[in-house]
């Protein structure tokens, strides 16, 4: 008998606690909702907009690796990309490769000398049907509907690297160790990453929001063009209309948004 | 019944202690990985999955292989397997525990793993893999435990278990199918992009799982008063024989398609694995060893004279287990990533800490398996006595 009375008292106590904590929790919850409503990010007045951002790379304007260096440097510097000595741990957002590596399967046995010697810039293609987005189990990588940029949420990524297996362009890098000690000069305007997450080119979304073109485009002296793929009057569409362009691994159906003039 | 796992002889305690020491070493190494990052492994930007995912893939197969004793008993009323179904179910539990652990140690940010459930993403195969693996784990725990408990009490198991048992059979197929879909749906990875990948995974699973089960049965007979039975072992051996034949056949189908079509993207990976590519060939001896092991396995299990000799059968099972491990674990993952999408070759060699962590996970799985088998065997001994 005693034990059952004790049990009832225990239950009453727990119920009372539950009844009193609920309103407190509700109050907290309400506050959070209010805070969220205020923090909605509005597009800046100067921000650049597009249906699908795209890039055209005029590879004829690059003679050697040295010509690419400033572009790569500009990108990696503002995005706090570390410089790691160990090749296995390397992180790169934009880099130069041979034609054979940029377009495997498209390289004939005999090629124009110029093409053979020319370096090809490669980066995330911000595909219209991105396989990496399809693979990600947490939506940490996603395609922004407003402008087609394929984004990475460094805080949600669990580091499973499914996206790296899914990307047919090798555009993604993984932080195999803490990258911060390997950043020469940290840019405070852009987040650094932690170990265990994936990263890649973001088409300089942070610059577009301020009305600036991507860093690599700005510094390229016209070798790179950037614009809306679905605006017939855009720079990229003009170039695509007047030049023969190719894209990497077009047969896979990912619809890359980076075009190459060869 | 849990108390049965802590009542054992000296040898039992010795074995469990040994396993716990290996788990401990693996755990310490894992703490290092947690601190430094996955950089302590041999993984790279080009080969971003390796030893952990290879073992995971192989063990999903071992888990699914357990169904090969459940199906004949419950669907075909093959009574002889009634004695060993519990071993198949408990083997599945231990294997899935290893699978889940391998996924966890492979994550760059393991503390965020619940994001998979917080932001469920039905278009990701990994999301579904998490669902089916956990489902299979719970199914086997519920079924195995209740059936064994009923057996101990001398009553028929609860009626509500029956539908769960039936569900568990296609569910076993699903775990390995979904695991194959992790790979075969990825554009630009020619080695994996084959519709036969899931069937291939299943065939090697139904060879490796029952092969391990046969070895367990032989060991149990030796260390306890419970005999899983000669007929049971022979029936399992026939299943292994068929499955390993189909597995090698499927592999040869892949080789034909790749080399007769002559498409470089599909040939290069197989070349890299079996003869080396552009001077890189770390996996060549391993892959040929795998082929030789599986072929000897076929000869020894198909031929009735060798199959019926349990000593020879044990050797065959070890060879088949190792052969399929190399084929589906080691080679499948490293081979799929090499050459890279940019046709560069950066060879992947697992690092020592990485192997140590993997051994720790295996030891943990064997710890779970030994404890579960100990319970099952003790119950069987009790009933006999």
How would you characterize the overall build of this protein?
The complex is a heterodimer of chains A (262) and B (385). Chain A is an alpha+beta fold and 262 residues long. Chain A has two domains: 1-40; 53-261, Alpha-Beta Plaits. Chain A contains nine helices and ten strands. In chain A, the strands form four sheets. In chain A, strands 8-1-10-9 form a four-stranded mixed beta sheet. In chain A, strands 2-3 form a two-stranded antiparallel sheet. With 385 residues, chain B is an all-alpha fold. Chain B has helices spanning 10-36, 51-65, 67-75, 85-106, 115-118, 125-153, 161-184, 197-223, 230-261, 264-274, 284-302, 304-308, 310-337, 352-384. Chain B has one domain (2-241, 349-384): Up-down Bundle (Formate dehydrogenase/DMSO reductase fold). In chain B, 50% of the residues are buried. Helices cover 74% and strands 0% of the residues of chain B. Chain B is globular, with a radius of gyration of 21 Å.
Give the SSE layout.
The complex is a heterodimer of chains A (262) and B (385).
Chain A: H1 2-38, E1 53-58, H2 65-78, E2 94-97, H3 99-102, H4 113-117, E3 120-123, H5 131-135, E4 141-143, E5 150-152, H6 162-166, E6 173-174, E7 198-199, H7 205-208, H8 215-219, E8 224-228, H9 235-242, E9 245-246, E10 258-261
Parallel strand pairs in A: 1-10
Antiparallel strand pairs in A: 1-8, 2-3, 4-5, 6-7, 9-10
Chain B: H1 10-36, H2 51-65, H3 67-75, H4 85-106, H5 115-118, H6 125-153, H7 161-184, H8 197-223, H9 230-261, H10 264-274, H11 284-302, H12 304-308, H13 310-337, H14 352-384
Helix pairs in contact in B: 1-14, 2-4, 2-7, 2-8, 2-13, 3-4, 3-7, 4-6, 4-14, 6-7, 6-14, 7-8, 8-9, 8-13, 9-11, 10-13, 11-13
């Amino acid at each position: 008998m005693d034990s059952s009375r004790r049990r009832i008292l225990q239950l009453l106590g727990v119920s009372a606690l539950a009844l009193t904590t609920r309103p407190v929790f509700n109050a907290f919850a309400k506050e959070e909702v209010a805070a969220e409503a205020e923090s909605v990010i509005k597009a800046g007045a100067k921000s650049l907009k597009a249906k699908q951002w795209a890039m055209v790379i005029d590879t004829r304007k690059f003679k050697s690796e040295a010509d690419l260096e400033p572009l790569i440097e500009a990108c990696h510097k503002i995005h706090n990309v570390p410089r790691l000595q160990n090749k296995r741990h390397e992180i790169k957002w934009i880099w130069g490769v041979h034609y054979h590596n940029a377009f495997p399967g498209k390289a004939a046995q005999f090629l124009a000398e110029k093409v053979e010697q020319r370096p090809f810039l490669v980066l995330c293609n911000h595909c219209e049907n991105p396989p990496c987005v399809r693979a990600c189990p947490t939506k940490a990588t996603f395609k922004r509907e407003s402008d087609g940029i394929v984004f990475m949420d460094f805080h949600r990524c669990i580091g499973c690297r499914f996206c790296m297996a899914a990307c047919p362009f090798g555009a993604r890098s993984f932080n195999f160790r803490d990258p911060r000690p390997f950043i020469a000069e940290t840019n405070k305007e852009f987040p650094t990453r932690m170990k265990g997450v994936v990263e890649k080119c973001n088409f300089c979304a942070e610059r577009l929001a301020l009305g600036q073109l991507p860093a690599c485009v700005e510094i390229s002296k016209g070798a790179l063009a950037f614009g809306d793929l679905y605006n017939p009057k855009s720079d990229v569409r003009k170039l695509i209309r007047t030049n023969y362009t190719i894209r990497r691994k077009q047969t896979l159906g990912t619809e890359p948004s980076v075009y190459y003039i060869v | 019944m849990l108390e049965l796992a802590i009542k054992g002889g000296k040898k039992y305690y010795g074995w469990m202690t040994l396993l716990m020491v290996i788990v401990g070493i693996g755990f310490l190494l894992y703490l290092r990985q947690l601190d430094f990052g996955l950089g302590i492994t041999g993984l790279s930007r080009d080969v971003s999955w390796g030893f952990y995912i290879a073992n995971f893939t192989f063990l999903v197969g071992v888990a699914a292989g357990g169904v090969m004793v459940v199906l004949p008993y419950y669907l075909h009323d093959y009574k002889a397997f009634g004695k060993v179904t519990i071993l198949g179910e408990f083997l599945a539990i231990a294997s899935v525990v290893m699978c889940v652990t391998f996924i966890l140690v492979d994550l760059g940010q393991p503390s965020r793993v619940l994001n998979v459930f917080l932001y469920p993403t039905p278009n990701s195969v990994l999301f579904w893999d998490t669902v089916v693996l956990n489902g299979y784990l719970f199914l086997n725990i519920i079924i195995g435990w209740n059936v064994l408990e009923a057996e101990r009490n001398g009553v028929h198991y609860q009626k509500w278990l029956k539908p769960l048992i039936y569900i568990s059979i296609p569910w076993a197929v699903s775990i390995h199918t979904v695991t194959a879909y992790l790979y075969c749906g990825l554009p630009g990875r020619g080695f994996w992009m084959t519709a036969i990948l899931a069937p291939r995974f299943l065939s090697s699973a139904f060879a490796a799982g029952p092969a391990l089960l046969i070895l367990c049965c032989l060991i149990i007979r030796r260390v306890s008063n419970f005999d899983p039975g000669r007929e049971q072992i022979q029936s399992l051996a026939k299943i292994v024989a068929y499955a390993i034949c189909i597995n090698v056949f499927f592999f040869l189908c892949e080789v034909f398609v790749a080399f007769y079509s002559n498409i470089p993207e599909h040939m290069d990976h197989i070349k890299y694995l079996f003869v080396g590519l552009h001077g890189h060939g770390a996996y060549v001896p391993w892959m040929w060893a795998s082929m030789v092991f599986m072929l000897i396995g076929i000869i020894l299990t198909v031929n009735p004279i060798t199959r019926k000799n349990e000593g020879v059968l044990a050797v065959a099972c070890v060879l088949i287990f190792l052969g399929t491990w190399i084929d589906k674990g080691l080679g499948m993952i490293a081979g799929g990533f090499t050459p890279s999408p940019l046709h560069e070759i950066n060879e992947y060699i697992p690092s020592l800490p990485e192997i140590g962590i993997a051994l720790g996970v295996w030891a943990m799985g064997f710890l779970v398996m030994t404890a579960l088998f100990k319970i099952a065997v003790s119950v069987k001994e009790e009933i006999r006595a």
